[in-house]
Inverse folding.
């Protein structure tokens, strides 16, 4: 199955609109193309622009057409389009395999394909067919996916304010009024959990995708905790930003999956989750064992585990792990922590359930 496109980068002249802006003066945006833009946006696919044009003139035309709001991080100028596409991917922190590019000119598509072979390139005459392609059809549709563009745009405003903020970074984070909620997943939230395991690669500890049917079985199993993490601040909601899958054993909690959105790495979301879980385990008198499978993109997650104090069971064995079945995957590493009390976070308020029993109620921050 083709990897789902996370961002489609549009050329403008004779691709998004009909005509060449600097030559014809007047250009036309077909209603059918407008519908494609709106439909892809509703599916949570971000859209951007890589166009050879005068930025001010082209952006004014997009605003006049009423579609400027749908395009994030536009690259309108005169440099190579491969450079523009790469900058967009880097700023979004997306793998190039999740980027698509559409342009009417074969030479422009060839230039992008040569320098960025992982980017999928499409001719302009296929624009109307894009919503019918598998790679433009995400497996799930959630509240978060339908407002993904707005959340990214709010994120860019946060970044701009952060760059301009004087003083230590921790002071800025405290000024955001960050509020993390960790809650037991309900049936309605499972699509958000599944989507996170599908979309997150850099901050997915195992790279495993848990389908909806499996998750529905786990939320009714008293041995398992399926936890979904949301984050808000004064700019608005970040949406669902993390998922934890935990299995209880005597004297041991087995963290089968930890995945967090790349969008909240800078706010210390992963470290906060691991601190909270370690503190909860310490209060319950149990050890933690976390599954980790190295992939091409999740080195950041391994670093987060190591900073949290986890050590490989192969290097530092512990008798507590005897209750775990042998790992079926030879590429799976198990990391161990004998936790003590932790300060969960100094920059955000955390609301979470009491994990001491499967039926525990809401915890205190």
């Amino acid at each position: 199955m083709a990897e789902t496109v996370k961002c489609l980068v549009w050329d403008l002249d004779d691709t998004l609109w009909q005509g060449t802006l600097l030559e014809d003066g007047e250009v036309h945006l077909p209603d059918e193309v407008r519908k494609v833009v709106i439909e892809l946006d509703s599916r949570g696919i971000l859209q951007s622009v890589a166009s050879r044009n005068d930025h001010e003139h082209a952006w004014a035309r997009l605003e006049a057409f009423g579609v400027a709001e749908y395009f994030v991080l536009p690259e309108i100028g005169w440099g190579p389009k491969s450079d523009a596409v790469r900058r967009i991917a880097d700023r979004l922190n997306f793998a190039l395999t999740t980027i698509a590019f559409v342009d009417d000119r074969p030479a422009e598509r060839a230039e992008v394909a040569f320098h960025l072979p992982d980017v999928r390139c499409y001719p302009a005459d296929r624009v109307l067919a894009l919503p019918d392609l598998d790679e433009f059809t995400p497996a799930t549709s959630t509240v978060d996916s339908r407002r993904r563009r707005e959340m990214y745009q709010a994120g860019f405003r946060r970044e701009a304010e952060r760059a301009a903020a004087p003083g230590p970074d921790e002071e800025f984070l405290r000024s955001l009024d960050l509020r993390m909620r960790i809650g037991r997943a309900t049936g309605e939230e499972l699509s958000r959990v599944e989507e996170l395991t599908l979309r997150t690669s850099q901050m997915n500890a195992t790279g495993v995708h848990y389908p909806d049917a499996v998750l529905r079985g786990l939320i009714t199993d008293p041995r398992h905790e399926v936890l979904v993490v949301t984050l808000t601040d004064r700019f608005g909601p970040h949406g669902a930003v993390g998922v934890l899958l935990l299995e209880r054993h005597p004297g041991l909690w087995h963290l089968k999956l930890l995945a967090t959105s790349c969008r909240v790495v800078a706010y210390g979301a992963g470290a906060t989750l691991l601190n909270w879980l370690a503190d909860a385990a310490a209060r319950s008198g149990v050890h933690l064992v976390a599954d980790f499978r190295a992939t091409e993109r999740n080195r950041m997650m391994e670093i987060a585990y190591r900073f949290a104090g986890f050590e490989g069971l192969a290097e530092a064995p512990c008798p507590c792990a005897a209750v775990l079945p042998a790992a079926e995957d030879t590429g799976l590493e198990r990391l161990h922590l004998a936790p003590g009390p932790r300060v969960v976070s100094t920059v955000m308020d955390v609301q979470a359930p009491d994990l001491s029993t499967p039926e525990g109620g809401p915890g205190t921050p």
